[in-house]
Amino acid sequence: MSIDSILPILIAFILGAAVGSFLNVVIYRLPEGLSLIYPPSRCPRCQTQLKAYDNVPILGWLWLKGRCRSCKLPIAARYPIVEFASGCLFVAVFINFGTTWLTPGYWLFICWLLALAMIDLDTMTLPNRLTASGMILGWGFQGWLSYLQVPTVQQVAGGILWAIFMSIFGLWFFDLIGIAGSKAFGKAAMGGGDSKLAALMAAWLGWQGLLLSTFLAATLGAVVGGSALALGVLSTKQHIPFGPYLALGAVLTLFYGQQLISAYLSIFFPVGL
What we know:
The protein folds into two domains: 1-99, no CATH class; 102-273, no CATH class. 71% of the residues lie in helices and 0% in strands. It contains eight helices and no strands. The chain has helices at residues 3-29, 59-63, 78-97, 102-123, 128-149, 153-185, 192-231, 243-268. 33% of the residues are buried.
């Protein structure tokens, strides 16, 4: 690979890692109701403000050897992991969608999914502020894509209305799943936040993307949850957050959705029958 081809990928990774650093702030502070801007980043143990050179994504944690410079207590490895994951996802989006409007749009989508997945892992909640804002961004994104195709008010309105309808479909679809699951198992099978996350995903991916994401999430959840139960890591009474699986399903659908849907259709609906 030439330097000219590597440089954009490197820039995408650095940008993603920097955004991942901010996402760490969102993941930690939003559920606590704290400001995302003030005070600046600090050690969660001793509250000492981090130096600028200690706050460099990924490298700052490595320089500090995973410990606060002031109190020497450990800093969780999840911080550089989120930054690294965000950087890799930014690169993946750039490689898949190139220098088009899809790339910055899907970067936003990825950010919302990553933040929501981590918050759900921590708190078993999916904050309305994130699901609602991510859904509205999806409406705007679809409107913008429609404008790029045909720059008319009617086209933009049609794109936004389509996205709104998809969100309603996602919300109702998951509400029905939750009602059916509750009746089948005699207890709440799905939280309200999952339905709102589904509405967000449907706005960005459409109904086919939502259905595929849900199928992938359920499959991954069954495999991981079943393995954890078999190994004794989880008990049958423990609740498992579904948001991270939905987010992972949405990411897989974003990158491989068309291939997976085409493969499904070719297997179950082969041409010529």
